[in-house]
Amino acid sequence: MRKVTFVCSGNTCRSPMAEALYRAYLEKNKIEGIITASVGVSAFSGDCAAPEAIEVCKERGVDLSYHRSRRLNFEDLNTTDLFVCMTSSHSDVLHRYGKRNTVTLSVPDPYCRGIEAYRACADLIEKGFEALTQSLLELPEICEMSEEDVPTLHRLEKECFAEPWSEQQLKEELNNPTARFFVIKKEGKVLGYIGANNIANEVYITNIAVFPEYRNQGLGEKLLSHLCFVSTEENADFITLEVRKSNTNAIKLYEKCGFEKVGERKNFYSNPTEDAYIYTLQ
Q1: In whole angstroms, how far apart are CA 255 and each of 84, 193, 213, 247, 248?
Q2: 3 state DSSP class of 29
Q3: DSSP H helical segments within the chain, as ranges?
Q4: Is 268 exposed, middle or buried (0-12, 13-18, 19+ CB in 10 A)?
Q5: pTM (two decimals)
Q6: Are 182 and 174 in contact (CB under 8 A)?
Q7: Which helix (H) or strand (E) holds 7?
């Protein structure tokens, strides 16, 4: 599944219209694999959609009377594949959170400008639906590891690590109730994966790897963010891992995602022998 989140200021005019109209577009065209949401960067939670927004959607056969506004939150930041922002000021907010998976529609705020301004906004929003859908369907998606993924993940392990996991070790995690293993794919092709174990609400990352040809595309951050969200949903106390002291790229990724160095393990790694840093996210 890919998730698109529409973003405006108060989540009462543009973004709820965009979400409702786009959901209707997906249903009409029988497009599956995309889920929708809408938020405001400065919203007051619980407000109804503007009456004009409700009326314009009703004219187009869409019910918006159910909508209640909400503010951008942690879940949105860590589960959204693409943010569709109404203006550049909204994308600027997401960029400050380190999110670059944004597009901007340049839809002006219709508030207090009459129903014709709302109709014009809806027209601008709907014009981009076909291109938006194509972009979403081309994005990688994250799913739980399956048995058919194991041979490819074993090959990835051999490419990335001096002591790779065997196919048998990976298969055993499929039936391990503490295992949290996720694969990132594009058009069915495995690009990378992350593995961890949640033991008594303490999450230990054991594997994270991306094929060399797909690195520097934000896939590692996407995998790590997904695991962080899943762990939060499971009320985990912390997430922790070890990393080679020389693996500066991985260390930058962990620190970007909020992990902090809390200790070292002497001679933890072999082939070659090297100390490990312990990084933890509370």
Answers
A1: 27, 19, 23, 12, 10
A2: coil
A3: 14-28, 51-59, 74-79, 88-96, 115-127, 129-137, 150-160, 167-174, 219-233, 248-256
A4: middle
A5: 0.78
A6: no
A7: strand 2-8
- C-alpha to C-alpha distance for 170 and 39, rounded to whole angstroms: 38
Q: What is the C-alpha separation between 118 and 16, in angstroms, rounded?
A: 12
Give the tokens for residue 165: 């996991």
Residue with tokens 């298969």: 171
**Residues 39, 75, 216, CA angle at the centre, nearest 5°?**
105
Note whether 96 and 87 are within 8 A (CB): no
Q: What is the pLDDT of residue 265?
A: 95
Q: State the pairing for strand pair 179-186/189-199.
A: antiparallel
pLDDT at 78: 83
CA 94 – CA 92 distance, rounded (Å): 5
Q: How far apart are CA 71 and CA 84, in angstroms?
A: 15
Q: Is the peptide bond before 212 cis (omega within 30 degrees of 0)?
A: no
10-residue stretch averages of pLDDT, the chain, 282 residues long = 95 98 97 95 96 98 97 90 96 91 95 96 96 93 95 96 94 97 94 97 96 93 91 94 95 92 94 95 92
Tell me which residues are annotated as active site.
242, 254
Q: Which residues contact 220 (CB under 8 A, 6 or more apart)?
A: 192, 208, 210, 250, 253
The SS3 call for residue 154 is helix
Residue bearing tokens 């693996």 = 247
Query: Phi, psi (5° rounding) for residue 231?
Result: -65, -40
User: Which amino acid is it at 162?
Assistant: A
The residues near 280 (Cβ < 8 Å, ≥ 6 apart) are 238, 239, 240, 241, 259, 260, 262
